Amino acid sequence: MLAELEKEMVGTDFWTNTEHAAEVSQNASNLKKLIEIWEKISAECRELLEMIPTIEPEKDPTAAEEYKTMVESLSERWE
Q1: Rounded to a whole number, what is the distance in angstroms from the first to the last CA of the chain?
Q2: C-alpha distance from residue 74 to each of 10, 43, 60 (Å)
Q3: 61-71 per-position pLDDT tens digit
Q4: Which tens digit of pLDDT belongs to each residue from 51-63?
């Protein structure tokens, strides 16, 4: 969808209809923001998943609690 909007935006007659051009530009901007948000969520989830094998609650309860806090923080920010 974003690629289609960007392709349309580079067309030679894109700004002929300024109302349509503004709408397409706004839609593209909104999609870019959503993509950035989801990419950040994805990166944070990957980071947390990569940490799972290193957490040993029996040996290091503090680290386990920090991990739990990180997961809760992620959950709260992205609700």
Answers
A1: 24
A2: 37, 11, 22
A3: 999 999 999 99
A4: 999 999 999 999 9
Rounded CA-CA distance 60/79 in Å is: 29
Helix (H, G, I), strand (E, B) or coil at 23: helix
Report residue 1 as tokens: 């969808």
Q: Write the single-letter amino acid at 74.
A: L
What tokens were used for 66?
């920090």
Q: Looking up tokens 């290193």, which residue turns up?
A: 54
Q: How far is residue 12's CA from residue 64's CA, in Å, rounded to a whole number?
A: 57
**By the 8 A CB rule, do 33 and 24 touch?**
no
Amino acid sitting at position 43: A
